[in-house]
Amino acid sequence: QVQFVESGGGLVQPGGSLRLSCLASGEIIFKAATMAWYRQAPGKQRELVALITGSGATNYKDFVKGRFSASRDNAKNMAYLQMDSLKPEDTAVYYCTKIYSGYWGQGTQVTVSS
Q1: Phi, psi of 15, deg, nearest 5
Q2: pLDDT tens track for 44-84
Q3: pLDDT tier at 12, thresholds 50, 70, 90
Q4: Is 38 helix (H, G, I), strand (E, B) or coil?
Q5: Rounded mean pLDDT, 21-40
Q6: Pairing outcome for strands 108-112 and 10-12
Q7: Cross-strand partners of 98
Q8: Are 50 and 35 in contact (CB under 8 A)?
Q9: Phi, psi dihedrals of residue 100, rounded to the nearest 5°
């Protein structure tokens, strides 16, 4: 069993910033895990946002490149997603997970609105 707990979401105005956090626990060797951030907007399928390997290499979908930044602290089993220049279309529930694990947290709601 693996657990992921996301936090840090909220309501922000367009152009604003948020930092999401994800705590991993359970049967996971976190420092070896490639972590992924996904999001799901109302009425849409869940979509990949960013990946970060255990060593910190990152990959981003085009729609967040230059605005979002993934990071991690392996000593704390934590992953982070810094989101800047937020747009209304970034509104979604954001999830973190270890890729291919099949485990999901409850997500954290991000709402971008004036």
Answers
A1: 90, -10
A2: 999 999 999 999 999 999 999 999 999 999 999 999 999 99
A3: very high
A4: strand
A5: 95
A6: parallel
A7: 35
A8: no
A9: 65, 5
